[in-house]
Amino acid sequence: FASAIVFDTNTKPSVYWWQDFWELSEQRTDSHNTEVAIKAVMKELNTFKRNSPVDYSILRNASIAAFKQNAPMDFDQFITSTFVNYVPTDPAITEKLVTVAAKLKKLPTEKNFDSHFQLVPAAVPFRRRTVPLTDEISISYEEGMPNLDEKIWASRTTDGKDVILIEATAESSKRFKFKQLGA
Question: Fewer Cβ atoms within 10 Å of its own Cβ: the N or the C terminal residue of the chain?
C-alpha cells in the first residue's frame, strides 16, 4: 500500500482529484482539525488555571471564540494574536506565557492536526461554563463570547465585600433587589 500526501488550499476541496481520480481517503477533516486543536490548546491553558485564574478565563474564552468562527484557521496567527500579543493581568505569568506560546506552536505536529484549515464551529466541544460563586450561587455563561471581561467582572464594595458584576438587560435586572454599588 503506497501513501500520498495531498494538500488542497481551496475552500471547498477538489473532490474529483482525491476521491474519483486518485481514489484517496481523507485523513484529517476540518472537523477533526478543529476539535483536536482546541482540545490541545485547552490542555496547555490549564497551566494558568491555578497561578492566574483571571488570565486563564480570558485566554480560554478568547481561544474558544476564535475556534467558533466560521472562517479559515491559521494556527500560527491564532497563537500570535491570542497569546503572544496578550498582555496578562498578572505580570508574574509573562514568562510562562512565552513558554506556553512556544509549546502551542509545536501542537500541529505533536497532536497530528493541520496548521491551516477551515474551522467547524460545531466541532468545538466547549459550550457553557459554570462558575460557583458561593455554596448557594453559581453563574453560567456561553463560552466564546466576545469581550467577556466587559460583561462579567469582579469588584469590591467600599465595605470590603467581593462582588461579581454582570451586565444585564433592564428586564432581567428587575428580578433582583437594587442596591447602590458601594453600599
Answer: N
Cell of 118: 477551515
Q: What does the alpha-carbon distance between residue 18 and residue 29 come to, in Å, rounded to a whole number?
A: 13
Dist CA 36 CA 113 (whole Å): 7
Q: Residue 112: phi, psi to the nearest 5?
A: 60, 55
For 48-84, write each residue's pLDDT tens digit: 999 999 999 999 999 999 999 999 999 999 999 999 9
Give the cell for residue 181. 454599588
Question: What is the secondary structure of the chain as a DSSP string?
Answer: ---------SSS--HIIIIIIS----SS-HHHHHHHHHHHHHHHHGGGTTT-HHHHHHHHHHHHHHHTSSSEEEHHHHHIIIIIT---SSGGGHHHHHHHHHHHHHHHHHTT--SEEE--GGG----EEEEE-SSS-EEEEETT-TTHHHHEEEEE-TTS-EEEEE---HHHHTTS----TT-
